[in-house]
Structure formats: C-alpha cells, structure tokens
Design goal:
Glutathione S-transferase Yfyf (Class Pi), Chain A, domain 2, 2 strands, flat
C-alpha cells in the first residue's frame, strides 16, 4: 500500500492596510511581485485623502480671512475720512487719462508709418522688369527682410488696442498696456532697417532702377515718421509708467498708514494678503490634482496588469481597489474645481484692488 500523499502547503495570506477602506490581502507567494506596487498604491491613496482633507481646511482658512475685510460701504466711509494729502495724491492718478490718449495716438502713428513702409518696400514683378539688370534686381529684392517690420506692425497694433481699453478704463487696464508698449519699444530695431534700406537704395541707383529708388525713398520717410513718433512716445510713456508704479505701491501704503493712525478697519494690505493666500491655496490644489492623478494611475496598475491571482480575498480586494479609484477620481475633480476657483478669485481680488484705488482717487476733498 503506497504511502499517503502529503497535503499541499497552504499559501500564507498577508495584507496591507488602506484606511479607512480596510485591508488589501495578497498571497505570500506573490509578495515579491505585488508588494512594492501595493505599498505605493496605498501610500498614494493615503496622500490623496490627506490632501483632500487639508484642501477643505485651507479653504476655510482663506474664507475666514476674507470675511475680516470690511464691506464696501465701510471702506467708502474710511476713504472719506482719510487725510487730504492722500486724497490729493489719489486724485492725481486721474491725470493719466490725458497721457493714455497721447500714447494711443502715437502708437497708431507708429503702426500706420510701419504699415506704409512695409507697403512701399514690396517690390513687384513690374518693378523688377523696370530694372536694367533683372537678375541683380531679383538678388537685391531677396535681401530685403520685411519680417521685423511685419512684427513691428503687429506689436504696434496690439499695443494701441491695449491703450484703447485703457482709455475706457484708465486705471484698471494700464498695466497690460504698459507691458505691451515696453515690449514694442525694446524690439523696434529701426537703425538696422534704415541701414539696410539705405544700402539697397544705393545699389538700386547703380542699376538706374527708378521705381525701386522711389519706393525706398518713401519707405525712408515712413521710417523717419515712425522714429519721430517713437521719440515723442518716450516721455508720456515714462510718465504713465511712473504714475502706475505709484498707484500700485505708494498710494495704498499712504492710505494704510493714515488709516492705521485712525484705527480704521480697512487696509489695502489685507487685500494683497488675501491674494497671496489664494495663490498659495491654488498651488496646494494643483499639488492635490497631481497627487490624485498619480494615485489613480498606480491603482489602475494593480487592477489591470496583475489580474487577481495574487489576491487572497479577490472579492474584498477588488471592492477596495474600486473604492480607491472612485475616491481618487472624486478628489481629482474637487482639486481641479478648487484650483480653477482660486484662479478666478485671484483675478477678482486684483480687480477689486484696482477698483478700490480708483474709488479712492475719486474721493472728494
């Protein structure tokens, strides 16, 4: 009689906790293959739930702080009580309206002169045929680079459009207009273009190419008009830039210092602090988005690539993994919503700061 067959050794069951959902179980024989991924998935999930809870707490902190800022009527009352020196400084900001119109007009002149120069520098087929040496005329045309002039036209038109908005809202829209104009002034490169046109005009003279010479002379006049408008733009642009810098720094500080002496409740600094808090909240929300995404990915790997052979309790393990995915996806959606909401509120707070500065500038003496 053959000896009895020894009973198969039972595979040991092990587990890893996933609070608050329970434990993910696995078979010891699969530990080497699945434990690193299981540990990572549990770690990422724990991070997601922790950040989701922190997101709620941080929102409450920002919301509570925002409610310490007095309502508009109280702010108006404190504006009315500020000293006349601050009111005078605030009202001087309204002078920027005149500068805005001047700058817009000069930018339009630059755009128009650049467009006229561009038009006059276009050498047509008929112009080429009028030259004594067609090949040299074609070579001359090929060396004429109109790319920078085209970019200048676009930049001037864009800057003029920004100043048109600033004309309707002299204080609120000046910042963007200043940036666009700064970019325009630093990228004009007129000296190089003038040298190029002058050189080509001399070569066209050697070809007795009258139509091209006439066009180059017109383009040179256009560029002179452009340079004159540029020169006239420097002073009003600097004045607008200085007034804007004053508005963004000195005026709020002057009001806050005066209102502190009066033991007032509104301070521009509190609005800046709110904006800073919102930016930090936005950064944390983005971290939560990224963390939740990575958690979902790591859980999907456990669901798909490994199958169920490693599971000691397949029904329980699959249920926990599904819940982990659901919670992580909801956390992702909530974090995205909070991040986008913070972005919107940052813009609102900045607009409110601008509007309050305008309101202060209109406070009667």
């Amino acid at each position: 009689m053959p000896p009895p067959t020894p009973a198969a050794k039972k595979d040991t069951e092990r587990s890893i906790p996933v609070p608050p959902l329970g434990k993910l179980t696995y078979l010891a024989s699969h530990e080497h293959q699945v434990l690193p991924q299981l540990t990572e998935a549990a770690k990422q999930f724990s991070k997601v739930t922790d950040m989701d809870g922190q997101l709620r707490e941080r929102f409450q902190e920002v919301d509570t702080f925002s409610k310490t800022i007095p309502p508009l009527e109280a702010v108006k009352a404190e504006f009315a009580k500020t000293k006349d020196g601050v009111k005078n400084e605030a009202q001087s900001l309204q002078d920027i309206e005149v500068i805005v119109k001047t700058i817009r007009s000069l930018l339009s002149q630059i755009g128009n002169a650049a467009a006229a120069a561009h038009k006059n520098l276009l050498i047509t087929e008929d112009d080429l045929k009028a030259a004594n040496d067609l090949q040299r005329a074609k070579e001359l045309r090929s060396r004429l680079d109109l790319g920078p002039l085209g970019k200048l036209i676009m930049s001037a038109n864009k800057a003029a459009g920004a100043w048109a908005k600033a004309e309707a809202d002299p204080i609120g829209a000046v910042g963007a207009a200043l940036d666009l104009t700064e970019n325009l002034l630093s990228a004009m490169g007129l000296d190089t273009l003038n040298q190029q046109i002058h050189s080509l005009e001399e070569e066209a003279g050697k070809l007795t190419w009258k139509s091209a010479i006439a066009k180059f002379k017109l383009a040179e006049q256009n560029l002179k008009d452009l340079q004159d408008a540029h020169a006239n733009l420097v002073e009003p642009f600097k004045k607008a830039k200085d007034q804007y810098a004053f508005r963004k720094k000195d005026l709020p500080q002057a009001f806050d210092a005066d209102n502190k002496k009066k033991k007032g409740k509104f301070y521009f600094q509190s609005m800046t602090d709110l904006s800073d808090r919102l930016k930090k909240y936005r950064e944390f929300a983005q971290q939560a988005v990224t963390g939740a995404y990575h958690a979902t990915e790591s859980i999907h790997k456990m669901q798909g690539a490994r199958g169920t052979d490693w599971m000691a309790n397949a029904s329980q393990d699959k249920d926990i993994l599904e819940k982990m995915v659901t919670v992580s996806k909801r956390a992702t959606e909530r974090a995205i919503h909070e991040r986008d909401g913070a972005d919107a509120h940052i813009k609102i707070v900045q607009k409110q700061i601008d509007e309050l500065e305008v309101l202060l500038s209109k406070t009667g003496l």
